[in-house]
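Following the same procedure, backbone shapes were mapped to integers, yielding the entry below.
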Amino acid sequence: MKKNIQFISLLLALLMMLPACTGGEDTASDTTSAETQPETTAETEVDPDLRANHFDALPDTLDFGGATITGLFRGVASMLDGTTGGYWLTNDVCGTDNIGDTVSDAVWQRNNTVSERLNIDLQWTASDGGSLANDITVFKNVVMSSDDSFDFFLPTGNTSAGQGMNSYMRDITNLPYVNWDSPWWWQFANESLSVDGKTMQFVVGDMLLTNLAQTCIMYFNKDLYTNLYGDANDMYQMVLDGGFTIDELHTLVQGAYQDTNGDGIADDGDIHGLLWSENQYEELAGWAVSLNMDLYRRDEDGAVVITMNNEQTVNAIEKTYALMKENAGSFIGKGTIADQAIPFSEGSSLFLAARMISATSSTLREMDNGYGIIPMPKLNEAQDMYYSGVHESGSVLCVPKSTAEAKLEMVGATLEALCGEAHRTYMDAFLETAMKSKYSRDELSGQCIDLIMAGLTKNTLDEYNSSFGGIMTGCIYNVMKNNPSSFASTFQSSITAAETAWEKALAAMQE
């Protein structure tokens, strides 16, 4: 995964020339830090769309006197010296010192810049739990033992919101020095992770690249598309014109199947239209988002109200089932979605629904055929945009109740500075240099990545699925897999228990 560069200064110069991937972001505040804002002349125009020009409002006078601040993250200690394969978690935390990887080097520089700017000693400690369940225990034990050695946490959604760890964390809505409206904080994710629409225990910001890694997208085999349907650019054009719907995908998948081994049955030896993992759950969370299911809303007080019993959700369920189980071009393989990436890379499937992390794997990087990156499809053309689900296995930031009040100013300033620095430097390095150049095969994939980024979203019911009595699993995923006609009866038999479970869980999380 290494991309040789000679000096970090070349990277920074490159970043200043790169355009931001998404428009519509807030321009810089009038009150900016002189330490982070470059000198300008009257003739110089500041480009508001350039991430490098989005400055924070941290005071220039902040100086924490060399105090130590420590983040506890889910991972193993060897990630801190770059000796393990935990590329994404490492880049959430510390990066690596000048190893020649554009993003990792920039993460390392981020930490140095923030440490010097705030005069702090930034330290990282791995949970070394060995599993998600053990990591939960590690994080909880820190809080329960009143261990103040750790000032903030970097667990994953699986080990935080999904496991009811809210009661162990501070409400950081008013964390000192943090401006949640800044473009480096993912407002849509933070709203989704809020249990009541008012408080925040878990947040996502630009420093957490695992959330981009776990974004649900699609890949298509350009050579196979050309053999089947003609110019592969037509596939891109359908996407860019807003016409890539699940109905269009259904047709393309069905027409792709070829019984290449001539045995009369669909098996591993054939060419398929779309590959699915063995249990399909890995993909279904992405489909529920991309098809814009009307699953819930927030009422005027911020409370979650389940709304899934509606025509739009039923329509999406029926179309997903038809694509997955009734389309001759769909094939359910053995193992995980990562296992399905292997036959896809060997030319045995036209499409693969996976996550952005797959693009960085050796499986796709070594793929002989050209492949394209596109968003997952819409339910219909009336849908306003392509939605891309960010899976809950990405990292989140939180502050444990064991963190002393006296340290909150330093914690707030550190998190604001880390995410702001990430936004100004390596977000473009990752998206423009890595994703659009290193891991993409053509320019049109880059344009589709812009669409993916514009439609990032999270699903509150999925984040807190267990706290809602497993309603997403029971009423959506199992029904999508097995029997769409059972949705109404399944919902009626589940909704009361789900609402009761949520009220009980909510009370416990707000203790």
Observations:
- Residues 8-213+392-424 form a domain with the D-Maltodextrin-Binding Protein; domain 2 fold (CATH 3.40.190.10).
- The first helix runs from residue 8 to 17.
- The chain has two domains: 8-213+392-424, 216-389+452-509.
